[in-house]
Amino acid sequence: AQSVTQLGSHVSVSEGALVLLRCNYSSSVPPYLFWYVQYPNQGLQLLLKYTTGATLVKGINGFEAEFKKSETSFHLTKPSAHMSDAAEYFCAVTPNFGNEKLTFGTGTRLTIIP
Amino acid sequence: GAGVSQSPSNKVTEKGKDVELRCDPISGHTALYWYRQSLGQGLEFLIYFQGNSAPDKSGLPSDRFSAERTGGSVSTLTIQRTQQEDSAVYLCASSLGQGVNNSPLHFGNGTRLTVT
């Protein structure tokens, strides 16, 4: 079974500051890991994913995440926050053998302080 | 192009009534998912359709929940004899169906269901 824990249901950062959203996963098999983002009044969309290969993955809008197997983590970062980054962010996991069911975390709402 | 469309956007119903939630996926997407998001909870998988294969119903919480997908396109999620604990946002997503690692899910804006 897989599970995802997102630490902090709400995170606030100042514009221009580092964004760090935490995600830890539990999986009995090698995982695929994802971050989805939901902007206000929009549906969730894929931000980035880790499947195989390079453990540091880059996504849209300057976000990146690093898969750390030893820490079972997949934290999302962005060096400099922008007002448009205000949204809810969801981490998700699935086994790497074709399971089509993504298991999502509870989400982190990111607020950007001007 | 058009994204995933869900209707209604909001639904208020009385306990014990049946409700139907509709999802129009992106044209050409063979995979369709239903998820539920309750207050303070993550997205909970309900059901998955892929082409003409039998759907994966393993996430449906009770036999009051059912879903169908007609003609490989539009899907309807039906909840019979609604209970207050069914109150949630019901999200539909579709994809090209080449595996979640290859085909990102495209989500609709959801239907907010309130059972009074």
Keywords:
heterodimer; A: 114 residues; mainly beta; six-stranded mixed sheet; four-stranded antiparallel sheet; B: 116 residues; 10 strands; 0% helix; globular
Secondary structure: elements and pairs:
The complex is a heterodimer of chains A (114) and B (116).
Chain A: E1 3-5, E2 10-14, E3 19-21, E4 24-26, E5 31-38, E6 45-50, E7 56-58, E8 64-68, E9 73-78, E10 87-95, E11 103-104, E12 108-113
Parallel strand pairs in A: 2-12
Antiparallel strand pairs in A: 1-4, 3-9, 5-6, 5-10, 7-8, 8-9, 10-11, 10-12
Chain B: E1 5-7, E2 10-13, E3 19-24, E4 31-37, E5 43-50, E6 65-69, E7 75-79, E8 88-95, E9 106-107, E10 111-115
Parallel strand pairs in B: 2-10
Antiparallel strand pairs in B: 1-3, 3-7, 4-5, 4-8, 6-7, 8-9, 8-10
Summary, kept brief:
The complex is a heterodimer of chains A (114) and B (116). In chain A, 0% of the residues lie in helices and 52% in strands.
Mean pLDDT of chain B: 93
How many beta-strand elements of chain A?
Answer: 12
Tell me, briefly, the overall form of chain B. globular
What percentage of amino acids of chain B are in beta strands? over 45%
Q: Report how far the terminal alpha carbons of chain B are from each other.
A: 37 Å
Q: Approximately how much helix is present in the residues of chain A? A: under 10%
Question: For the residues shown, what is the average pLDDT of chain A?
Answer: 93
Q: What fraction of the residues of chain A are assigned to beta strands by DSSP?
A: over 45%
Classify the oligomer.
Answer: heterodimer
How many individual β-strands of chain B? 10
Report how far the terminal alpha carbons of chain A are from each other.
Answer: 41 Å
User: What count of helical segments of chain B does DSSP give?
Assistant: 0
Cα Rg of chain A:
13 Å
The most extensive interface between chains reads: A-B, 28 and 27 residues
Low-confidence stretches of chain A at least 5 residues in length (pLDDT < 50)?
none
Briefly note the structural class of the backbone of chain B: mainly beta
Number of helices of chain A: 0
In one word, what is the shape of chain A? globular
Q: Report the order of strands and helices of chain B.
A: EEEEEEEEEE
